[in-house]
Amino acid sequence: MSFLLGATLVAVTMAMACALPGVFVVLRKNSMLVDGIGHAVLPGIVIGYAITQDLGSPWLILGAALAGLVVVLGNEYLTRTGLLAGDSPQGLVFPALFSIGVIMVTADFANIHLDTHAVLVGDLNLASFQQLTIEAPGRSPNLDLGPVYLYVMLAVLLVNVAFLAAFYRQLKLTTFDPQFARTLGIRSGALNTGFMFLVSITVTAAFNGAGAILVIALIVAPPATAYLLTDRLPVMIGLTVGIAGAGAVGGFWAAYAANAATSAGMSVFYGVVFLLVLAATRAARARRRRSSLQRTTGTRPTTPEQALIG
Amino acid sequence: MSDVLGALMGPGAFFDDHTFRMAFFGTAVIGLVAGALGSFAYLRKQSLISDVISHSALPGTLGAFLLAVVVLEVDGRNMAVLMLGAVVAGTLAVGLAQYVTRATKLSIDAAMAITLSLFFGAGMLLMRIISNGAYPGKGGIQDYLFGNASVITKADLIASISVGTAALVLMVVFWKEITLRTFDPDHSTVLGFHARAIDALMFITIVIAIVIGVKAVGLVLMVAFVVTPPSAARQWTRTLPAMVVLSGIIGGLGSGLGAYLSIAVGGVPTGPLIVLTLFAFLVLSLLLAPGRSLITRARGRTRHRRILLRQLVAEREAHIEPQGSTTLPGAGQS
Q1: CB neighbours of B200 closer than 8 A, spacing ≥ 6?
Q2: Contact in structure between A119 and A211 (CB atoms under 8 Å)
Q3: What is the per-residue pLDDT across A38-97, written as a single tens digit (0 to 9) for each?
Q4: What are the helix (H) ranges across B17-48?
Q5: Is the pTM here over 0.90, yes or no?
Q6: Nearest in space to A265 (alpha carbons), one of B227, B129, B329
Q7: A32 contacts in chain B (CB < 8 Å)
Q8: ipTM of the assembly?
Q9: Which residues of B touch A85 (CB under 8 A)?
């Protein structure tokens, strides 16, 4: 598998793995919590690396995801105390955890050579560098199966699909009608914790390729764009996956063509797509409103000036 | 506490050193201004907008740097130019997040997340361009990510103080309008105040507070300077003026103390240590503040439980004695 094809596949898989749970993250108004999780996994990654000595280890991903869960549970606890207003609990826990992570990195804890710059931005190409090869009998070059990282993200994607398929009904109910869900006996607290843990795992796994900040774009931008276009959940999920995949290919190749930083380029690409869709839906709505106004009042613009006013 | 630290480095030796003095006062000014102005974001329940602003300061600063070096051909390190760029980008980001919330059915958190990643991504693209090109004075550009309090110069300090003072003066001058808009937005509109203009004014002061801190503290941790002091101050106070003042004091003291600790201990980055100091202030406030703290509440709860238990026992004894049996109430019904 050529390197470029491998990296493109990684980008697409990563985008889809992130965007799927993102649908419920956006609908549950937890988008900025992802930002917090993205930063808070840093100390988890450092400690996990100290134990496993391998940045790609699944144990490291699970351990670091627990650190992300601290933000979720800490936010819930602080909100429940009723002592803090608005979204401030979300902004209190993660800077502290991130600080601990930065201090550990600079103190050269566990000899981890994490470039703090790469922590924020990630490097898709670097993450895709290590190729999975299998020694095939009878073939002189080993069978090349593409980047190892591709399989990590593929596993995360499958876990996300399985979770959403298994708990689709419960997630839908707790998202749109939490009270009704509770009367039905759905344990919304446990479901929420489980779901956010999955988001945390996704963020940690994507961290290597995307960095703490692009992860937010990957998780939030495709579902938010899809939400502009539809009101129906199944349609929104389909659109989200489509936008995530197309955006990954488009963003990756645009960044490649412009010789720009990959993850930053993809992040901007998703943002621009969102803004374009926003502008298009606004324009379409304005046109619909104008034409329905004309139908109901029976007026028809005759001169360009009137058309402008109408 | 200062005795323990005195063994590491006495305050006298600390303040004799120019770099240390600048780091201390520079971060203290940042903490004070951000803490005071952050109170309004806290009360508007939009604290996280500060995270969006700090991330969008990156493309603003770098864009201004490129503009200054390439187009205007002036010194790219000109503090005023960089600050202006960051303020413009920060204000644009706030405007975009508010617009998306108003124009679509997306909630403010999704709007913030998209704005943040868009602006930060643009910033990282610019950073790549700058670090690949040969631009004079591009050193220190990396500091905007994680901050570096040891590069605060006297000019930086003077710039922070004057710009920060300007933001605080704006806050005091428009105190009435901002307060009314914060606590009773509908009434404020009915009285004829222009809601969006007041919002813009309030958020611009917060943008300024953040922009003066980004280079010293780093854009990732700046959110803690805006969110933590008001959250701690709110526990001790009941009125807005008291909260704003206390929040400023906590921000200033916490930042100064954190900067001092980081230098006295040595080898520990300043921004993260300040954040942890502020977080310690918050935890203490949540635990100890009179009237509403977690400890007071837990004690109140146990006291009420004891009283209730005593009442129940007394009732039960009164209920049991006349009958002379120990059947539970309701057990005899069929």
Answers
A1: B91, B95
A2: yes
A3: 888 888 888 888 787 776 677 788 888 888 889 889 988 888 888 888 888 888 999 999
A4: 18-43
A5: no
A6: B129
A7: 48, 51, 109, 112-113
A8: 0.87
A9: 42-43, 45, 234
